[in-house]
């Protein structure tokens, strides 16, 4: 009995995502399956009920790839961008901390911020934060490109049965300090609840 309980405990611990390292290599995203596109479009909705389970590394890899992942050897992405600038960057806030996603290497780099961002997460499974470098892009293009990325996330979450909400009301100043960027470079956020 004790041995089987110990095995069960060990198996459950191994199933938990470990997000404590400074650099986390994500698994390859799953690029097949899910709901047919027209069904996802029909079912797509906004839900502010984004509390839920913390994401696994596979779930993080999948949602980030769907958002703006690399699809071809030439670096093209799942979302279009004006003049192919691919300026949208994605940070991920979980209960374990803030991470910046490197799409080319499919890695999360842990932020060393000491700023408490729990009010931005607000109990969600995760929050995606969309930023861009305003030295390299016209703000109007970045806004549109961010919309493409956000729609990808909406359709992915719908396909998975997850709740999500695209947010304009975020604390841009606080997030900019945490991400070490200018306040105007923080575009939007998206809270996600895994059900």
SS summary, helix count? 6
Element order: H for helix, E for strand: HEHHEEEHEHEHE
- Global shape: globular
| Proportion in β-strands | 15-25%
The level 1 CATH classification is: Alpha Beta
| CATH architectural designation | 3-Layer(aba) Sandwich
Structural class: alpha+beta
Taken together, the total number of domains comes to 1
- Given as residue ranges, the uncertain stretches (5+ residues, pLDDT < 50) are 4-18
Largest sheet composition:
7 strands, antiparallel
Q: Assign the CATH topology.
A: NADH Oxidase
- CATH homologous superfamily, by name? NADH Oxidase
| Quaternary form | single chain
The main sheet orders its strands as 1-4-3-2-5-7-6
Task: Compute the average pLDDT.
Answer: 90
First CA to last CA: what distance?
Answer: 32 Å
Roughly how much helix do the residues carry, as a percent range?
25-40%
Describe the structure.
- By secondary structure, this protein is α+β, with helices and mostly antiparallel strands.
- It has a single domain (2-193), classed as NADH Oxidase, CATH 3.40.109.
- Helices cover 34% and strands 19% of the residues.
- The chain has helices at 2-15, 37-43, 57-68, 118-121, 139-160, 172-179; strands at residues 23-25, 89-94, 97-102, 107-110, 126-131, 163-167, 186-193.
- A seven-stranded antiparallel beta sheet has the order 1-4-3-2-5-7-6, sandwiched between helices.
- Strand 3 and strand 4 form a beta hairpin.
- Helix 2 crosses helix 5 and helix 3 crosses helix 5.
- The protein is globular and about 40 Å long.
